[in-house]
Design goal:
Layout lengths: L2 E7 L2 H17 L3 E7 L1 H5 L2 E6 L8 H6 L1 H18 L3 E5 L2 H13 L4 E4 L11 H8 L2 E4 L4 H7 L4 E3 L4 H4 L6 H7 L8 E5 L4 H21 L4 E6 L24 E4 L2 H7 L2 E5 L2 H9 L3 E5 L3 H10 L7 H6 L6 E3 L5 H13 L1 H17 L5 H18 L1
Parallel strand pairs: 1-2, 1-4, 2-3, 4-5, 5-6, 6-7, 8-9, 8-11, 9-10, 11-12, 12-13
Helix pairs in contact: 1-17, 4-5, 5-6, 9-11, 10-15, 12-16
């Protein structure tokens, strides 16, 4: 018996998790075909992509408006395909504004909807949980507190663990990584991780580069590495424009495809708030977390966001494990001060590493994609019996 499944992952992290889920489903139903929206990892896992997600990954109200044309086009292609092909299941991964509209159209067409990796409705715009209850048949959630939240709102949700527990690991030692990239493993190494969305990089990399200048003025032997997300081209960084990186000897090591190796090798990373903070937690790398959106989005966010912390690490821990510098606090001097404090205080880094191990334990023991695939298959089989 053949199965048709449509899957949407609008961002780089969703592409990774979507690929894992597709692989797990193929193990269970080899005859299934997959179509959807995603990136290279999902394509490599066997998904026929209607639209790549490179232009879809934006955060903030004004940022969405700037990318409205590709978003509308992707939505139109998605709805047309679902109506024409009538898949056995629609799988949605995070990316709530887009995916909840897709869920509504799928529900009207009588097609079951499975949400893997919850929208962060517990953090902001909680009214969207009503849409989820009406439009989604079942959810597989990956943060330990999400199951209780959704069940309290009468949404069928199961905690399956976090897929990063299975996928995050470094294939190199610090010495091997440094040798490959011309770095000295005996000197301090700071990772600059400006995000996987174009808007994040253009807003945050200049600030991170400014912080790098302050750090190097205080600790001249500090080295820098920039792990590039697959959605980001190195040219977007415009590295040569920053005085701290002006000469060949001062340039950071830029690496693509070795994000986990770069983070694992770093003494500290300066990280954009998002999935990368949990990746660094699993790798045990201390971090300083930062984020900026446009001033308009920032003002609106203060009224809409209902959680104490921005970073997933602190949310999972239920307390401040890593420092967060957001919006106007995210200045080069402030970021550099936190990084320098950590570089100079080994005891603080060790305490943070222990806290990060506790966060990792809370994410589960592995096998998230397999458990999510079992839930998805349940929905398909139940719907076919009907």
């Amino acid at each position: 018996m053949s199965y048709k499944i449509f899957i949407v992952a609008g961002e780089a992290s969703g592409d990774l998790h979507g690929a894992g889920l597709v692989s797990a489903l193929k193990d269970r139903i080899p005859q299934a075909s997959f179509t959807g929206i995603g990136g290279e990892k999902m394509r490599n896992a066997g998904v026929d992509l209607l639209f790549t997600n490179t232009d879809l990954a934006v955060v903030g109200i004004t940022e969405v408006l700037a990318q409205i044309i590709p978003i509308v086009r992707a939505f139109s292609l998605t709805v047309s395909w679902i109506r024409r092909e009538r898949p056995d299941l629609v799988i949605l991964i995070d990316y709530p504004e887009f995916n909840l509209m897709v869920a509504g159209r799928a529900r009207k067409a009588g097609i079951p909807v499975f949400y893997y990796i919850s929208p962060q409705v517990w953090a902001w715009r909680r009214g969207r949980v009503k849409k989820i209850r009406r439009r989604v048949d079942r959810m597989a959630v990956i943060l330990p507190f999400e199951q209780e939240f959704f069940r309290s709102h009468h949404v069928k949700a199961d905690f399956v663990g976090h897929p990063l527990v299975d996928t995050v690991w470094s294939g190199m030692s610090r010495t091997e990584f440094c040798t490959e990239h011309g770095l000295d493993p005996s000197l301090p190494l700071v990772g600059l991780v400006p995000g996987s969305r174009h808007g994040e990089v253009t807003r945050l990399f200049p600030v991170m580069s400014g912080a790098a200048g302050v750090i190097r003025a205080e600790m001249p032997q500090t080295q820098f590495v920039i792990p590039l997300a697959p959605t980001i081209d190195e040219g977007l960084l415009r590295i040569d424009e920053y005085p701290v990186f002006r000469t060949r000897d001062d340039r950071p090591a830029v690496c693509a495809g070795e994000t986990y190796e770069a983070i694992s090798a770093s003494d500290v990373i300066l990280a954009t708030s998002g999935t990368v903070t949990l990746e660094a937690a699993v790798l045990g790398t201390p971090m300083v977390v930062t984020y900026r959106v446009s001033p308009v989005s920032g003002v609106l966010g203060r009224f809409l966001i209902h959680v104490q912390y921005a970073s997933l690490v602190n949310l999972v821990a239920g307390r401040e494990v890593v420092p967060e510098l957001l919006q106007d606090q995210a200045t080069p001097d402030a970021l550099a001060e936190e990084v320098l404090f950590m570089l100079r205080d080994k005891a603080r880094r060790m305490r943070m590493k222990e806290d990060l191990r506790d966060v990792t334990r809370r994410l589960g023991s592995g096998g998230a994609a397999g458990r999510a695939a079992d839930l998805a298959l349940e929905i398909i089989e139940r719907n076919r019996i009907r």
